């Protein structure tokens, strides 16, 4: 576990699912002054503890209603070829998330598409260009996904906070140049000040503030979260289920969702039925948690695939 004191942890807990929280709120919650809050935030950014301030955008409203999560098994890997593949994914407009992993799957990719045909075109493209590197692609379609507050940072044993929805719904909305400009800036850094956005777009801060509120109200902007480097032992679990009843399925989802160490949870269609990201303090706790899941749900778990968090190379919601 990275060395953080109680004040650092309180700051991270507060901005975890509220990345645009004003410094005054952060300082009040942590019971420190604004200058101290600003200093500590900047220090954690510089140390790589805080890696991204993410604006969670409803990509359905932007014409990308199909969400897909791809897991890659690689072969014939060299540093040069892997870097070329990662650079390609980072530059692709449809790809919002790219992470190197350690385990059965070595690359985790999330993308949005207009329809299944656009997705098929994406697969054909990468297979044609990087077929020598790709041994297998497993993909799932999330039907519901949530970000969960890192309750363990402040010592909670059971989570009781509301989650942040990760996937949007609805039809495509019309956005003008100002709305698109705001989203483009916030997609790169959710904590960008309103005055800075106004300067870049050559508009008044009051107009920008009103437009941001409108984007939130219309459901285009669903929230703001803070991405952190793994503070302890971070890992993903993919669940393929068997003989599952609706009751047992909800019990599994409830168990994972209330666990203070679970930070992301998705219900999916495809090769796996559930995907969860967890963060624990050490490898011993990781083992105990995995065994607890097995013992509680052995009757419905056909396969549980773990892989460790790696380096995130791209994290934006704007297609």
Write out key terms for the chains shown.
11-stranded antiparallel β-sheet; two-stranded antiparallel ribbon; 10 helices; Arc Repressor Mutant, subunit A; alpha+beta; 319 residues
In short, what is this structure?
The protein is of the alpha+beta class and 319 residues long. Helices cover 38% and strands 29% of the residues. Helix 2 crosses helix 3.
Report the mean per-residue pLDDT as an integer: 92
Continuous helix count: 10
> Strand percentage, roughly?
25-35%
The residue ranges in which pLDDT falls below 50 over 5 or more consecutive positions are none
CATH superfamily of the domain at 174-217: Winged helix-like DNA-binding domain superfamily/Winged helix DNA-binding domain
| Sheet having the most strands | 11 strands, antiparallel
State the CATH topology of the domain at 174-217. Arc Repressor Mutant, subunit A
């Amino acid at each position: 576990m990275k060395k953080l004191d109680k004040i650092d942890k309180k700051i991270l807990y507060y901005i975890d699912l509220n990345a645009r929280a004003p410094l005054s709120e952060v300082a009040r919650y942590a019971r420190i002054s604004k200058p101290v809050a600003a200093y500590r935030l900047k220090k954690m950014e510089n140390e790589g503890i805080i890696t991204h301030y993410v604006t969670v955008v409803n990509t359905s409203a932007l014409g990308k209603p199909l969400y897909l999560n791809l897991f890659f098994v690689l072969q014939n890997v060299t540093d040069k070829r892997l870097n070329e593949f990662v650079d390609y994914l980072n530059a692709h407009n449809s790809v919002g998330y790219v992470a190197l992993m350690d385990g059965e799957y070595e690359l985790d990719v999330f993308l949005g598409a207009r329809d299944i045909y656009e997705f098929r075109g994406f697969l054909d493209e990468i297979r044609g260009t990087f077929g020598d590197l790709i041994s297998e692609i497993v993909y799932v379609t999330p039907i519901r996904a949530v970000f969960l507050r890192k309750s363990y940072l402040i010592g909670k044993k059971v989570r009781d906070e509301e989650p942040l929805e990760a996937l949007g719904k609805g039809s495509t909305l019309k956005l003008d140049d100002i709305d698109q400009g705001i989203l483009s800036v916030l997609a790169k850094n959710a904590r960008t000040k309103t005055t800075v956005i106004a300067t870049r777009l050559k508009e008044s801060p009051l107009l920008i503030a009103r437009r941001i509120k409108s984007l939130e109200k219309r459901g285009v902007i669903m929230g703001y979260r803070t991405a952190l480097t793994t503070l302890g032992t971070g890992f993903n679990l993919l669940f393929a289920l068997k003989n599952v009843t609706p009751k047992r399925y909800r019990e599994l989802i409830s168990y994972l969702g209330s666990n203070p160490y679970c930070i992301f949870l998705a219900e999916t269609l495809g090769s796996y039925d559930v995907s969860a990201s967890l963060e624990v303090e050490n490898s011993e706790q990781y083992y105990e948690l995995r065994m607890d899941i097995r013992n509680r749900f052995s009757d419905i778990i056909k396969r549980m695939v773990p892989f460790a968090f790696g380096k995130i190379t791209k994290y934006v919601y704007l297609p």
